[in-house]
Amino acid sequence: MVVWDGGRVSGSGVTVPAVVAVAAGGRALTLVWANEAGGLTFTAGEGTGRCFIKWIPPGSGLDLLAESERLAWARQFHPVPQPLASGRDAGGSWLVTAALPGENAVSARWKADPATAVTAIGEGLRALHETLPGAQCPFSWSAGQRLADARGQAAAGRLDPAAWHPCHQGITIAMALKQAAAVPPPDKLVVCHGDACAPNTLVAGDGRWSGHVDLGPAGHRRPVGRPGRRHLERRMELRPWLGPPPARRLRNPPRPRTNPVLPPAMGPQLITGRSTPAGR
Questions:
Q1: Which CA distances in Å does 212 have to 81, 105, 193, 215?
Q2: In this predicted structure, what is the pLDDT of residue 219?
């Protein structure tokens, strides 16, 4: 962990944005996450008053106010953080949420038990799809909308193929967008997490999922692929800690890959990029 010492976060070189300090209200701040878009996430306080404060700079391509609206809707049906405050000014955007029980699935504890973490991730995401009512969801995260967003980010120069997974290193931005445009007609709509990477599933002490955070552009869309071991290894951050034999398989029936070049993981990677921990 790296802790705020008044103006900068010790040992990290990170300056605490003024709005984050105000939102903390004098409580101790700990930096827990930093992403490639320049976004920062802090915790403030302890016990029942503990909260998380997310901040992103202008031009990051992320919309915390929209995420706040999604959290407020989703928490009626599924364990996600309660939004407490949000705002935007010339220096960036911020979102304050209440804490949920559990640790993220790539904490030191769950890296030491990746089979349990992967199972919790898959079961948690499946529960999210099943409990959030797609027909009532006022938000969309359709392939067409995500493709339009990816094209906008490409035009703005915010897509970097060098940051993509090694299995996609031979694909140019133009090739990726062309392949992604081959959108099959939807057969079923479910509500999907907007950034379903491993850290965004929380795992309780008993090894079961306890909630989801960082919904991002969550909304209804067509489900593709299945959250099985191989997909979770490739898409998420637990692959280095997974041994070769599969421990447990999720009970989802296999589905054919709908795009021969871009696996289901590629869409969120094109749009949101990948996050890196600043310390846990």
A1: 8, 10, 8, 7
A2: 57
